[in-house]
Known about the structure:
Radius of gyration: 18 Å
Distance between the termini: 21 Å
Amino acid sequence: APVGGGGAAATISRDWPTLRTVLEVLAGIDPPLARHLHATLVPRAGSTLVAAVLFFLAAARRGDARGWLGAEAVGALARAGRADLLTRLDDEFRTLARPAAGAPERQPVPFLDGEVLTVIDLVYRRDDREPDHGSDPAVQPTTHRFELALELSRLGPLRLAGALTGRRLALVLDSMRPLPAALVRSLEADVPQMMAAAGLEGTLTIGASGPGGRRATDRDDGLGVAPWTPLSGGQGG
């Protein structure tokens, strides 16, 4: 069944057959490369989740399937005579267009649940509010906001919310239970490196709320996202 309610989300089914076939073909012709893509490229639970989601979103906004896969994977598919898969994936990435100004859209994001490829929805909004009176619009770039919610068997409900204004990125990762200390340390080390590599500067706030607790987004994080309601159902991981 298609994901979401309209736009790009309506064109990608829940198991994204083209991408699943790409990964299966690569596993048959270059197993080490396929394992690397599974571990680092496709979003999954763990320390690479934030960086992988952001890298996918950047490629999706450009409609750049080949840039997302990388030259090594593109070359392997072409040499194997499966350029047809690249063409299909190119077409599907081009459907991942930006929403109209001010209109929220649920954009599909690939997610590995163990070794099973599925698709989760990211709520994306472009904020085109007028700049303050007397300010120069040239120095008031558009803010792009996004929000991703999922529920994992090992980590519980999670929400990643962000706001990108020019080259500045503010991220908040919420959880309903404390995240493992090793995962927090990894995120705090890896995400700033990912931002710097992408030419961005910004912040990552990690918070958890248990009974009577206070989530990171209960504070004034400046993201302007809606209050968080954990999912009632789960997407395992």
